[in-house]
Amino acid sequence: MGSRPMWWSASPPLPWGRGSGKWWAMGGPVALKAVGFLLLAALLFRVLCSFPSSPAPALQVTKGKCNLFSGEWIPNPSGPAYTNASCRFIDDHQNCIMNGRPDKVYLRWKWKPYGCDLPPFDAVRFLDSMRNKAWGLIGDSILRNQVQSLLCLLSKAEEPIEVYHDKEFKNRRWHFQSYNFTVSIVWAPFLIKSDVFENENGISTSEIQLHLDILDASWTSQYESFDYIIVSGGQWFLKTAVYWENGVVIGCHYSQNKDLVELGFEHLYRKTLQKVFSFIISAKHKPVVFFRTWSPDHFENGEWFNGGSCNRELPYKRGEYKEGYIERVMRQIEFEAYNKAVAALRGSDSVDRLRLMDTYSLSYMRPDGHVGPYRTPYPFAKGSKKATSVPNDCLHWCVPGPIDAWNDIVMKMALDR
Question: What are the record keywords, sorted (predicted)?
Answer without folding.
Answer: Golgi apparatus, Membrane, Signal-anchor, Transferase, Transmembrane, Transmembrane helix
